[in-house]
Write a structure and sequence with these properties.
This protein has one domain: Cytochrome c oxidase-like, subunit I domain (Cytochrome C Oxidase, Chain A), CATH 1.20.210.10. Helix 11 packs antiparallel against helix 12 and helix 12 runs antiparallel to helix 13. The protein has about 375 residues and is mainly α. The longest helix is centred in the middle third of the chain and has 34 residues. InterPro entries: NnrS.
């Protein structure tokens, strides 16, 4: 048992959570697509397939990757030893039990109990180190993890009370909280990766004001979804989304370097971050009455931005933190292209053809399948 706890895969949080999150991403979307097309032979999850899909994409898949990233980044920020060994195994098992609970014939109350511990435990582990090191500039990340736990409570309460509107608002608030977290973390690491990847001199320090405005406005967007302000178009809300979109575009303009188009680990991050701009501009158009379906903006965020940025980030972080050369294989580069096509298919094809959903799901599953094919050995083996 001691040897199992000391295995390389449990040496740092990114290893088990990137593996588990990527595998779950491929499996969950495959199950969802098979069910949509009437080809799923298995038993439906507790509460129905729609409730499961809504909950598991942000609170199962995205949260696993966020946990893996932060459990690796926070030790770097604080200089403290990261969670490893049996404590890390315990946290992984809490996440895994929550995923399996949906397939067990259990009461709704027990399902809720099994879902709730993961995010508070993650917040406690991260908060303990951040507070001990006095890293005040990272406290907003801790706040967002805590708010994500609140969104999960809202979602599960909607499931327990059969309140579809409450469940939907909790999920959408969570997605936009993830977008806010992506803007904070992406604003730190993407320009750093571009500078390091192209051997450019450090850029002059940018004003912190746009980043702070993005953080506050991103939190306001999440709150607006939680309180149902996005249930119907409200022209005044389009101004908030226009502001966020303009700040994202300003970042993309500042970060751009022609050399990055030769480096897959850079253009994949850059283009995926660009989907954030697409999603917020689409929301602005919807609130202004210029776009018919809010779901197109939601899936531009969920598939293009969150899915794409997660795939690009875990590919880059896994190589860097295992001591390997930052040269991705052809397979994972193909995965980057497939994820971009998945986003385009979900947003542009679905309004015109029901086959767009199936194609987007196939492309998504293939992209994460390629990651698992090329990175499972990397994440299981010791650092080079």
């Amino acid at each position: 048992m001691r040897a199992f706890g000391a295995a390389p895969v449990f040496s740092l949080g990114f290893r088990p959570f990137f593996l588990a999150g990527a595998a779950f991403a491929a499996l969950a979307v495959a199950i969802w697509a098979l069910w949509l097309y009437g080809r799923w032979p298995g038993v439906e999850p507790v509460g129905g397939m729609l409730a499961w899909h809504r909950h598991e994409m942000p609170f199962g898949f995205a949260v696993a990757i966020i946990a893996g990233f932060l459990l690796t980044a926070v030790p770097n920020w604080t200089g403290r030893r990261g969670l490893n060994g049996w404590p890390l195994i315990g946290l992984v098992l809490v996440w895994l039990l929550a995923r399996l609970a949906w397939l067990m014939p259990i009461p709704h109350a027990l399902l809720l109990v099994l879902q709730l511990p993961f995010l508070p435990l993650l917040a406690w582990v991260l908060g303990r180190d951040l507070l001990a090191a006095g890293k005040r500039d990272n406290y907003p990340i801790l706040l967002m993890i805590t708010l994500l736990a609140g969104c999960q409570v809202m979602t599960l309460w909607g499931l327990a009370t059969h309140d579809d509107g409450l469940q939907r608002r909790g999920v959408l608030a969570a997605l936009w909280l993830v977008a806010a977290l992506m803007s904070v973390i992406g604003g730190r690491v993407i320009p750093f990766f571009i500078q390091r990847g192209l051997s450019r001199p450090p850029a002059p320090a940018a004003s912190p004001l746009p980043t702070r405005v993005l953080l506050v406005s991103g939190l306001l967007v999440a709150v607006s979804f939680a309180f149902g302000l996005n249930d119907a178009p409200r022209p005044w809300l389009s101004l908030l989304f226009v502001l966020i979109g303009a700040l994202h575009l300003l970042r993309l303009w500042r970060w751009h370097d022609r050399g990055m188009w030769r480096v897959p680990l850079l253009w994949s991050l850059y283009l995926s971050y660009g989907w954030l701009s697409v999603a917020v501009v689409a929301m602005a158009l919807w609130h202004a009455g210029l776009m018919p379906q809010q779901s197109l903006a939601t899936h531009a965020l969920a598939v293009g931005a969150i899915g794409g940025l997660i795939l690009a980030m875990i590919a880059r972080v896994s190589l860097g933190h295992t001591g390997r050369s930052l040269l991705p294989s052809k397979a994972i580069v193909a995965g980057f292209f497939l994820m971009l096509l998945a986003g385009l298919s979900r947003v542009l094809l679905v309004p015109f053809s029901g086959l767009g959903l199936g194609l987007a799901a196939l492309l998504w599953c293939s992209a994460f399948g390629l990651f698992l094919l090329r990175y499972t050995g990397v994440l299981l083996k010791p650092r080079v």
